[in-house]
């Protein structure tokens, strides 16, 4: 399947379009996470957890490239690990800073161009890129820069939205990307950003060309995963160096946490606020849905027994109107609370 034609008139598709990318993401930073939840049907949190779990526990210095609003950063935290977030958009980094804080275990946030990383050669144990690699053009140059700062044997984990592969669901997937996604972007301050998102996913393709790009840049892919029937994919790769000895852990050092433990994410003020907010919103949603159920039962009962009641004329019409208005109001509230719960807590 051939990828969609590249829109040459859009400057964001030009090589090294860092300034254009920064301007676009600055404009959409306020609602970026909410729209991501909606567009991925609430699955992007799970995908990011898989991205974080693919980073070896022994990795002590980890870069999240194209970190955006920092959604992937919390999952990368481990005791004794330095986490760095780099993005070209100051607006997105400000959102990340509000969420992650400034002290203690907070990740170090840096505004920089992905083609000119302010890091020494072979200084990182692992690099993650979530939904950002398709924005780095030319991709071969971006992968060479990633390889430069990664240690021999270091891990690269890439999560990216992909175009449909041939199959029975491909027409539906392509229709969603080409028509539904741009219309959802109307909820954003910059709808053109989501038209770009649609075209850039189709331009990236189903992922085979990226496999070849990784090999050409000196990476060996160790694992591939598909999510949501191929709507996004995860690559786990390792920097290969001919003749270089593989990295080994120092047996004289002991990890700060038991490797048998699951998770290992550091608690933050933002995560505690998020847990409280989710519990309260879920309680409101459950209450609203219960009221919807009661109103449906009351409306069904009223319509069933009305013929045998003395209620006539405007009294019956008024009762019916009250029930329908209540059902409409709490139905809308349930939908709003569901979308809000999918979107996550508001940024402070």
Structure characterization notes:
The protein contains 11 helices and 7 strands. With 348 residues, it is of the alpha/beta class. Strands 3-2-1-4-5-7-6 form a 7-stranded mixed β-sheet, sandwiched between helices. Helix 2 (32-39) packs across helix 11 (313-343). It is elongated. The chain starts with 17 loop residues before the first helix and ends in a 5-residue tail after the last helix.
Major β-sheet profile: 7 strands, mixed
First-residue to last-residue Cα separation: 44 Å
Q: Order of SSEs, N→C? A: HHHEHEHEEHEHHHEEHH
Q: What do the pLDDT scores average to?
A: 84
Radius of gyration (Å) = 24 Å
> Taking strands numbered 1, 2, ... along the chain, how are they ordered across the largest sheet?
3-2-1-4-5-7-6
Strand content: 5-15%
Helix content: 40-55%
- Helix/strand class: alpha/beta
**Shape verdict:** elongated
Number of helices: 11
β-strand number: 7
The low-confidence runs, each spanning 5 or more residues with pLDDT under 50, are: 1-7, 245-263
Main features:
disordered N terminus, alpha/beta, elongated, 11 helices, 348 residues
Provide a brief overview of the structure:
This protein is α/β, with parallel strands linked by helices. The chain has helices at 18-28, 32-39, 44-53, 73-76, 90-100, 139-149, 170-184, 191-204, 208-216, 269-305, 313-343; strands spanning 61-65, 82-87, 108-111, 124-130, 150-161, 219-227, 232-239. Helix 10 packs antiparallel against helix 11 (313-343).
């Amino acid at each position: 399947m051939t990828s969609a034609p590249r829109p040459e008139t859009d400057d964001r598709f030009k090589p090294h379009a860092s300034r254009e990318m920064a301007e676009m993401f600055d404009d959409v930073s306020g609602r970026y996470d909410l729209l991501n939840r909606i567009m991925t049907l609430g699955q992007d949190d799970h995908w990011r957890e898989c991205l974080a779990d693919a980073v070896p526990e022994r990795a002590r210095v980890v870069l999240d490239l194209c970190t955006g609003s920092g959604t992937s950063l919390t999952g990368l935290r481990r005791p004794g690990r330095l986490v760095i977030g780099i993005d070209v958009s100051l607006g997105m980094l400000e959102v990340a800073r509000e969420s992650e804080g400034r002290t203690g275990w907070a990740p170090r946030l840096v505004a920089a161009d992905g083609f000119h990383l302010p890091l020494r050669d072979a200084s990182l144990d692992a690099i993650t890129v979530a939904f950002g690699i398709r924005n780095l053009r030319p991709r071969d140059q971006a992968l060479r820069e990633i390889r430069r700062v990664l240690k021999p044997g270091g891990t690269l984990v890439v999560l990216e939205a992909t175009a449909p592969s041939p199959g029975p669901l491909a027409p539906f997937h392509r229709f969603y990307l080409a028509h539904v996604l741009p219309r959802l972007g109307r909820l954003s301050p910059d709808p053109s950003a989501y038209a770009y998102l649609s075209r850039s996913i189709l331009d990236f393709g189903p992922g085979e060309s990226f496999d070849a790009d990784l090999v050409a840049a000196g990476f060996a892919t160790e694992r591939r995963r598909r999510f949501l029937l191929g709507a996004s994919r995860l690559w786990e790769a390792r920097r290969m160096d001919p003749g270089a000895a593989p990295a080994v852990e120092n047996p004289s050092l002991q990890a700060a946490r038991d490797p048998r433990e699951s998770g290992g994410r550091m608690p933050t003020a933002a995560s505690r606020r998020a847990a409280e907010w989710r519990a309260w919103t879920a309680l409101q949603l459950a209450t609203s849905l219960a009221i919807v159920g009661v109103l449906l039962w009351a409306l069904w009962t009223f319509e069933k027994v009305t013929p045998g009641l003395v209620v006539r004329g405007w009294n019956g019409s008024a009762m019916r109107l009250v029930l329908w208005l209540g059902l409409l109001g709490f139905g809308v509230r349930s939908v709003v609370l569901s979308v809000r719960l999918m979107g996550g807590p508001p940024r402070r």
